[in-house]
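INFO  loader      accepted 1 record
INFO  loader      residues=134
INFO  predictor   begin
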Amino acid sequence: MKNTVSYRLISFGYLHNQPPEADLVFDVRRSLHDPAALGEDLAHRDGRDEQVQRVVMCSPTAEVVVHLATVYVDTMSFQDKSCVIAVGCSHGRHRSVALIERLAAELTRRGYPIDTRHLRLELLENRPTESGEQ
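INFO  predictor   done
INFO  writer      dumping tokens
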């Protein structure tokens, strides 16, 4: 029998998106260091960047969030249930993206089929330019 269980990980920004419908939502606005506050160099990058990820993962809460989400996925897998986990920060570019990337790496390492979405980054990457081109 084919395994149809899927695991979706979503990052978003509370200032730009409503929290997506999810089984588990983490609000990390107050619990993780904001790389954008450390200077322009990091402000113009996003959570897929290695430097941004290092800053985010230095927050004591970061690995706790990854651990809790991993335990949740492990529990759902025993029940043969799909799940959606969302992580939100203020703008949805740094902390939430870095955490989803870290969680995706951990779950992939454990053999789970993962689908990731970064809602704010998708909006930024798909917005038209001033000339109307994409």
